[in-house]
Design a protein that fits this description.
alpha/beta; seven-stranded parallel sheet; Rossmann fold; about 45% helix
Length: about 270
């Protein structure tokens, strides 16, 4: 493979959770554009199917609730059955429910812990089991966990979300250490996206205003841009390109790291 290869993931299979919309959809599109066959895993079967259909490369969709271990076993098995491989796993599915810590509900805490921490942990578990030498795919690979700039800064209104994204960072590093020490040939890294005006990102700005932290959603966005040295919000493509890099052999000596893709906001 040359460094100028336009299809660095040609012949490889990538499974992307939460791939039916937002950042996950963008990551699925970028991985497919880089040559991968993508399996779009999501709770929303209709949208996931539409995204998969638009990708080409024999891409397909699979139903997945990331908090359900049997669902993970089935999704990984289906991916390997359909494509014969599993080279890249992107643990992107996440949920953000805004609240001041003084007002947070137990149910909302549990929901975010379940999806963001338990869901990511199960993804790493079953990704590693499939990718390691004795696994169903057995060719090694790259696991990417989507954390957040919220893991690196204290932004108000998202205390539990921030805590779960910090947990994703630690999960990444210990998993990378284990996979490396055991010689499994699997790299595990995470990405910290900055604020991107997806449905989730836009909702977050609205929440910040309704919690009384900023005068308006625009003021909340303005505060983020002001804290960002590159002076703009992130785009889906900014995040997706970083994922393709960490999925490919261009990052072959990178494991256990967190890549901030936040315009410098969290530095």
């Amino acid at each position: 493979m040359t460094h100028h290869d336009r299809s660095p993931l040609s012949g490889r299979t990538a499974l992307v959770t939460g791939g039916a919309q937002g950042l996950g959809e963008g990551m699925a599109r970028a991985l497919a554009a880089a040559g991968a066959t993508v399996v779009v895993a999501d709770l929303q079967d209709g949208p996931a199917g539409k995204v998969a259909e638009s990708l080409g490369n024999d891409s397909s969709a699979v139903h997945l609730d990331v908090t359900d271990e049997a669902g993970w076993q089935a999704a990984v098995a289906t991916t390997v059955e359909r494509t014969g491989r599993l080279d890249v796993l992107v643990n992107n599915a996440g949920v953000e429910i805004s609240s001041l810590i003084a007002d947070v509900s137990v149910d909302d805490i549990r929901t975010m812990l379940d999806v963001n921490v338990l869901g990511t942990a199960l993804g790493i578990k079953h990704g590693l089991r499939a990718m390691r030498p004795d696994g169903a795919a057995g060719q090694g690979g790259s696991i990417l966990n989507i954390s957040s700039v919220a893991a690196t800064i204290a932004f108000p209104g998202i205390p539990i979300y921030s805590a779960t994204k910090a947990a994703v960072d630690r999960l990444t590093r210990v998993s990378a250490m284990e996979a490396g020490k055991l010689g499994w040939g699997v790299r595990v890294n995470c990405v910290y996206p900055g604020l991107v005006p997806t449905e989730m990102g836009t909702g977050l700005a609205v929440d910040m205003a309704s919690l009384g932290l900023f005068e308006s959603p625009d003021a909340a966005v303005g505060a983020v841009v002001e804290q960002t040295p590159l002076g703009r919000l992130g785009t889906v493509e900014d995040m997706a390109d970083a994922v393709v890099f960490l999925a490919s052999d261009a990052s072959r000596f990178i494991t256990g790291t967190g890549l901030s893709v936040d315009g410098g906001m969290g530095m």
